[in-house]
Each structure stands twice: as structure tokens, then as C-alpha cells.
Amino acid sequence: MPHPLPGPAWTIREEIEAAKQEALHLIPLAHDDLASLYAARELFAEAVQGDIAYTPDEVIAFLHLQLHEWWARLEGPIAAGKEFTVV
Q1: In the 8-state DSSP scheme, what is residue 77?
Q2: CB neighbours (10 Å) of residue 47?
Q3: Is the pTM of this model over 0.70?
Q4: Angle at 49 between CA 46 and CA 52, to 5 degrees
């Protein structure tokens, strides 16, 4: 069953709702979205640690291209007042 964010019993519900009116945007993530972002973070961490044959700058350039849909999604307007739930 889906759960609204913030949850009705959350003690900081009012603060979150107020922040959503100001500037806070909650962006729902599908499992594939989350996996892509975690994979990108892991790839960058491996470059920083020297565990792969690419520099952090090369990985950033690669990820910028691979995650171009994310950049477009975050740069564009976020639907105001759009509620979402977590399953």
C-alpha cells in the first residue's frame, strides 16, 4: 500500500510541508533510478580511490553524459503541489 510523504504521523510533518511551499522538492525515485544513481556514485568512488583506470574528471564527464536525463529532469520545472507516495 502506498504511503504519502511526509507521513501523517511524522513529527516534522509541518516543517516539511512548509519547506515544500518555499523551495523543497521531493522527487520520487523508481528502483531503476536509485540503482543508476548508486552505480554512478560507486563508479566515481572507485575512480577517486584509484581502483579503476579512469580519473575522477573522466568519470564525471562520462556520468554527465550517462545521466543527461537526470540533469534535464532536475533543471526543468518541478510540478508544484504534485503529491507522490512511496510504495
Answers
A1: P
A2: 20
A3: no
A4: 50
Question: What is d(CA 38, CA 63) in angstroms, rounded to the nearest whole number?
Answer: 12
pLDDT in tens, the chain (87 residues): 567 778 888 999 999 989 988 888 888 788 998 999 999 999 999 999 999 999 999 999 999 999 998 888 777 666 554 555 554
* C-alpha cell read off for 80: 508544484
Q: What is the C-alpha separation between 11 and 72, in angstroms, rounded?
A: 33
Distance CA 4, CA 35 (A): 22
Quote the CA–CA distance of 68 and 79 in Å, as a whole number. 20
Question: How many Cβ atoms are within 10 Å of 45's Cβ, its own excluded?
Answer: 13
Classified as helix, coil or strand, 3 is strand
Q: From CA 6, how far away is CA 84, in angstroms rounded? A: 10
